[in-house]
Structure formats: structure tokens, C-alpha cells
Amino acid sequence: MVVSPEKVKALHVEMEKLEIFEKDIKESFISGSGSGGQKINKTQNCVYLKHLPSGIEVKCQKDRSREANRFFARRELLEKLKEKVLGIPSKKSIKEDKVRKQKKRRQRRSQDDQLE
Fold first, then answer.
1. Which of 17, 32, 14, 116 is nearest to 74 (CA)?
2. CA 74, CA 77: separation in Å to the nearest integer?
3. Where are the alpha helices (DSSP H) in 29-90?
4. How far apart are CA 31 and CA 11, in angstroms?
5. Can you name the residues that pair with 47 across neighbouring β-strands?
């Protein structure tokens, strides 16, 4: 999967708005794991990012391509920093909260059914 230059540019613009600089990010590459065959197991395409000022860490291996994983990891880091610094909830956390509420509601219903 190739990430378009427009998306990469938009990501860097958003990072600049939040004053997140490349010099503040420690990046390393780790050998991949999981399904994907021999290519995944032989190459170092898993991206590990650490934002040094905040200490937030991200590890990403969504794709077989190292460049695509670099983009996804930066995007995930940006979402985590927005959530921590600005208090803006990410789509992932909103979805997790929704599932948590559904499970709680189902549990209450099953307890009410058992009492009757």
C-alpha cells in the first residue's frame, strides 16, 4: 500500500500545528511478526515511535511496507497526543467507550432477567 504524498503532507502540517517535531521523535524498526509469510518475518518493517517530551510510545505493523507503517505510526502518535494534550477523544477511544457501555447494558439486562 502506497500512501499518497498529499496525505503525508497533511500529516506533517498537522504535526507542525501541534508543535510536534521530528527531532522529538525517536524512531526504530523492529522485525515483524504474525501472518504475512516469509517477507514479514525476514524484514524490519514494524515501526516503533517514542515522543520524547511526553513519553508516548507507538508500535505499528498494519502493512507489509515500511513507509506505510511509518505514516500509520505517526498518525496514531498524533491521535494519542491530541487526546492527551488537547483532550480531544480519538475515534478509537469513542468506539471503545461505546462497546463498553453496550456490554454494561447487556450485563444489567441479564441480571434483571435472572432476578425475575
1. 14
2. 5
3. 38-42, 66-81
4. 25
5. 29, 60
CB contact at 8 A, 81 and 70: no
Give me the amino acid identity at 116. E
**Cell, residue 112:** 434483571
Class assignment of domain 5-88?
alpha beta
Domain residue spans of the chain: 5-88
Within the chain, which residues score under 50 in pLDDT? none
So what's the pLDDT on residue 99? Answer: 92
Amino acid in position 1? M
Q: Which pLDDT score is estimated for 37? A: 73
Amino acid type, 4: S
Exposure string for 28-57, b = 16+ CB within 10 A, e = fewer:
eeeebeeeeeeebeeeebbbbbbbeeeebe
Amino acid (one-letter) located at 33:
S
Q: At how many degrees (to 10) do helices 5-17 and 66-81 cross?
A: 30
* Count of Cβ atoms closer than 10 Å to residue 12 Cβ: 13
Q: What is the pLDDT of residue 28?
A: 94
